């Protein structure tokens, strides 16, 4: 299995980061995409990717858009030259929490989409309660990538699939109350468009048994997401694990062999 979204730079992992990676590997996680959400965490994710033979993203999350320096695109471009950096992001729009003004979110996202297209790299996209605006931004570009931690409605799913994006599913799907709409939509996601991610340390799957003592999520728990998706799609665990890994490699690792 491959975890397509881990926030390994989170301070929640400060005490045992190497153990978290070791536990993931012991639980058959062969690769992870380490997410950068601003310039410092993009640099740290790259360093961790180097240390642990993983891959990472470089970009600016909508929450952090207001703090982006004027030369953020030059800095992301520089980071993206490293072979371990396989995507631009986390970029996008979050009109749910609105931690940055919406016009600034849109500008910072748009510039990263432009860069992704220019570098022919996939984008790692975050969208919360901003589908209509995201539709407009995407329509101005032709990019590949993943709509990570998808939680939208059927119409949004249809747009992202028609556009050509992969759909990232997290432990949100393991939540019977909050994840009800997502659970109903899982059968509509084709196997060749599915990515699985923990978004650790966030979104601890509610179906884990026994329940961990801590609320902190980690990549070793990815199997709970796969189990839940397999059940909702009336298929088996291995089918979901196999397809999502193949999708990950096709989207993010296609240029890796030509670099090394
Ligand atoms: Zn996100």
What is the topology?
Blueprint: E1 2-6, H1 17-26, E2 31-34, H2 39-52, E3 55-58, H3 72-79, E4 85-94, H4 102-119, E5 123-128, H5 131-139, E6 145-147, H6 154-163, E7 166-169, H7 180-185, E8 194-196, H8 222-232, H9 237-252, H10 256-259
Helix pairs in contact: 2-3, 5-6, 8-9
The protein binds zinc ion.
Residues 90, 126, 148-149 line the site of zinc ion.
Poorly predicted runs:
none
Q: What value does the Rg take, in angstroms?
A: 17 Å
Mean pLDDT: 96
Report the count of strand segments: 8
What is the structural class?
alpha/beta
As for the CATH topology, it is: TIM Barrel
What is the 3D form? globular
Ligands bound to this protein structure: zinc ion
The share of residues in extended strands comes to 15-25%
- Largest pleated sheet: 8 strands, parallel
Please report the distance between the alpha carbons of the first and last residues: 23 Å
Helix content: 40-55%
CATH class call: Alpha Beta
Q: Strand arrangement, largest sheet? A: 1-2-3-4-5-6-7-8
What's the CATH architecture?
Alpha-Beta Barrel
Fourth CATH level, the homologous superfamily: Metal-dependent hydrolases
Count of spatially separate domains:
1
Order of helices and strands: EHEHEHEHEHEHEHEHHH
Number of helical segments with 4 or more residues: 10
Detailed description of the structure:
The protein has ten helices and eight strands. The chain has about 260 residues and is of the alpha/beta class. The protein has a single domain, classed as TIM Barrel, CATH 3.20.20.140. The longest helix has 18 residues, at about 100-120. The mean pLDDT is about 95. The protein binds zinc ion. Zinc ion binds next to loops. The site of zinc ion has 4 residues, from loops.
């Amino acid at each position: 299995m491959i975890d397509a979204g881990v926030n390994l730079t989170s301070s929640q992992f400060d005490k045992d980061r190497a153990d978290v990676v070791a536990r993931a590997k012991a639980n058959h996680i062969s690769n992870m995409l380490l997410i950068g959400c601003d310039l410092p965490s993009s640099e740290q994710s790259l360093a961790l990717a180097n240390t642990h033979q993983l891959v990472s993203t470089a970009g600016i999350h909508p929450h952090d858009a207001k703090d982006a320096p004027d030369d953020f695109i030059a800095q992301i471009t520089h980071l993206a030259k490293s072979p371990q950096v396989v995507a631009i992001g986390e970029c996008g729009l979050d009109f749910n929490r609105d931690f940055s003004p919406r016009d600034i979110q849109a500008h910072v996202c748009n510039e990263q989409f432009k860069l992704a297209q220019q570098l022919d790299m996939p984008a790692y996209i975050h969208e919360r309660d901003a589908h209509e605006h995201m539709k407009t931004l995407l329509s101005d570009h032709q990019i590949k990538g993943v709509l990570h931690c998808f939680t939208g409605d059927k119409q949004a799913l249809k747009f992202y699939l028609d556009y050509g994006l992969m759909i990232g599913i997290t432990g949100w799907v393991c939540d019977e109350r909050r994840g009800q709409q997502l659970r109903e939509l899982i059968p509509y996601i084709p196997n060749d468009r599915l990515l699985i991610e923990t978004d650790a340390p966030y979104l601890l799957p509610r179906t884990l048994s026994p329940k961990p003592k801590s609320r902190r999520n980690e990549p070793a728990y990815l199997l709970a997401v796969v189990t839940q998706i397999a059940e909702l799609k009336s298929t088996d665990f291995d089918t979901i694990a196999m397809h999502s890994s193949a999708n990950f490699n096709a989207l993010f690792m296609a240029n890796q062999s030509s670099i090394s």
